Request: fold
Amino acid sequence: MPTSPTVLVIGAGISGLACAHFLRERGVAVHVLEASDRPGGLIRSAEQGEFRFELGPQSFLSAEPLSQLIQELGIQDQLLTADSRAPRYLLRNGQLVRAPMSPLGLLRTPLFGARTKWRLITEIFRRAHPPEDDESVASFIRRKFGDDLLKSTVEPMVSGIYAGDPQRLSLRAAFPEVHRFEREYGSVLRGAMKSRGKPGSMPRPALCSFRDGMETLPRALSHSLGAALSYNASAESLRRSKSDGHAAFEIHFTAGSASELLSPLAVVLATPCEVAARLLSDLDARFADAFAAIEYAPVAVVSAGYPETAFSGPTRGFGFLVPRSEGLRMLGTVWNSSMFPGRAPEGHVAVATYAGGATDPEICSWPDEKLAELICGELARVMQIDAPPVALRVQRYARALPQYNLGHGKILERLAQLAANQPGLFFAGNYWGGPSIGACVKQAQTAAAAVSNYLTSIGELTSAAPSSAPN
Reply:
């Protein structure tokens, strides 16, 4: 390990790994510390017999700069792409109903009534009256389309993306494009149509994974970084090397039984909020209050494999989401073996079911056996399964996803203000630009550009691309 890398990245989740990659592309000497023994954070693939389970995110969207990163790592030949035409389902009165994928499908769907359909169709013609204050997703949907759409479609979608509560989730923070469309164009539909029709607009991204599982991406980044990544290295404290607030940092960390010190010129904290708050307590105690305001939702993932003959219901498609009004504890199920090959042996089906989230956190504290029994029972009723699973794995995350709740934008503004008083301090993580893998990579690239701009400003780097990233 170098005694004093120019930049130290703390945390080897996808944000930290991608940020280090982009920094190296800019010619910056960087080192990454990871407290655990593996890369990737929540991205985790596991073999169970002949089944391949994803214990975290099941897929990603092929948007930039993630697609370019995959090319740079040389793993594009391992990409798998799901069929975009495959059906998606929502549970309605105990039955799986296809989600509408076209205007005609919207008119025919039994998921919501005629009044809701009329409000969807005529939204482009109605004058918008958005509130000045931060608005929840639930408030926005009720105002624009009514309670029917919220409960049947948007609520389960929000649970699937953010594990969140639409009554508390901020529209501006969680769905900034939707918020912008209404503000700029007076209509969400008009804004979406104009955005898609702009010259140079990107094609609709595809849902992707890798032949050997999602963990292929962090493993490739880890391999690329080589000796610039240290595992089982836990940062214990972060201080300035001098009291003037403008000198290099001192980071004390433990590696095994040894305690070591690094003195980088810049630090990127790519850790969960509670770790960042602890490390920054000596620099400015106000960081802790800001980070504490960001809530996390717990999530449990129950991965199961079944014989294909056990199913009477559909197994082809992306999977299904469950509205809270259905009275089940499961949030939704992804049909992995239908989306991507190599997830289950011949004649079998692999699925991953999510539970918990902001609307049902208590279930994540259940013992594995009790949790699996409940989820597999609900799954059997919904998908008409008449046999027990032949492979089963329960994975839980007490702090899975940060919640982009009302006021989240102001929290990030506060963190940026505090960081501005600490030259050389930067953040990367799923609480900045979105929780998806693509959003994390995009924000990591922006953070790397901000770091290189800072190094240029203090004469430590000859040139850097401009950036608007928070520092």
Remarks:
- Residues 437-457 form the longest helix (21 residues).
